[in-house]
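Progress note, sequence design subtask.
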């Protein structure tokens, strides 16, 4: 599923190739000490090399798309610094997000809250999900008659569930730009089969960090536009951006925060 994880120790420059280039330049320019030479690199790359390279790649791509960037935003963690959540944790969080979003969606659309909650309770029991909800989710599920605002907020969790399904390799498409809401029937159908998933695994850490870096910088662009009372650039959906950012920050263990406390700093 994409690139193999890159390690700092596995990315040294090709010493033989650099030496050959140096010999070629010496034949052209001679061996005068005043002539700059290519010196073989015999050390390790800087510890933040990959993170800075990722930042530069993301910024270049965004400029080409016409998305404003803030070059002062720092790099994010790299492969040697990050500790991803386990596949089991990601699966549990995906299931919790989908269950709460389905209840919220049902309460917003269905005339019979009792029927909605009966189905949700059945899902929780059959899939043994009771221990997977955050404190805020547990409180929402226990609320007999939540407000419309509460349900709208939890319905947005579909957008947070998507990058987790993608990280588990169950969403074959690329995530793409967060410029539209998720294909909801497809996501719900995926959740309906989730209890049959076996051999859980995550995508390569490099792929996940690429998405985490991208959403970090897209969120800054959206927030910057909002503060200027402007539309989000290139049709980005601010709500989708925020939910995706929270999910990816949780996935990479940002500040070691649990779900309810995860922030989306820019």
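Output:
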């Amino acid at each position: 599923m994409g690139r193999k994880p890159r390690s700092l120790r596995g990315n040294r420059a090709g010493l033989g190739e650099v030496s050959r280039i140096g010999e070629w330049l010496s034949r052209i320019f001679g061996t005068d000490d005043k002539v700059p030479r290519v010196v073989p690199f015999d050390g390790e790359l800087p510890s933040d090399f990959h993170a800075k390279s990722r930042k530069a790649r993301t910024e270049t791509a965004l400029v080409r798309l016409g998305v404003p960037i803030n070059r002062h935003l720092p790099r994010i963690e790299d492969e040697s610094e990050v500790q991803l959540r386990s596949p089991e944790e990601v699966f549990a969080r995906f299931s919790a997000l989908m269950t709460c979003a389905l209840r919220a969606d049902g309460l917003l659309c269905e005339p019979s809250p009792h029927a909605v909650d009966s189905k949700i309770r059945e899902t929780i029991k059959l899939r043994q999900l009771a221990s997977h909800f955050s404190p805020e989710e547990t409180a929402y599920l226990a609320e007999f008659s939540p407000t419309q605002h509460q349900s709208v907020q939890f319905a947005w969790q579909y957008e947070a569930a998507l990058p987790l399904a993608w990280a588990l390799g169950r969403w074959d498409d690329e995530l793409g730009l967060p410029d539209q809401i998720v294909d909801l029937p497809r996501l719900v159908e995926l959740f309906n089969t989730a209890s049959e998933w076996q051999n859980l695994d995550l995508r390569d850490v490099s792929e996940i960090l690429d998405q985490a870096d991208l959403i970090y910088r897209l969120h800054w662009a959206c927030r910057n536009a909002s503060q200027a009372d402007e539309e989000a650039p290139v049709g980005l959906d601010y709500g989708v951006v925020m939910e995706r950012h929270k999910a990816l920050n949780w996935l990479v263990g940002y500040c070691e925060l649990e779900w309810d406390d995860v922030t989306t700093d820019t």
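The chain has ten helices and no strands. Work on this subtask will continue into the next period as scheduled.
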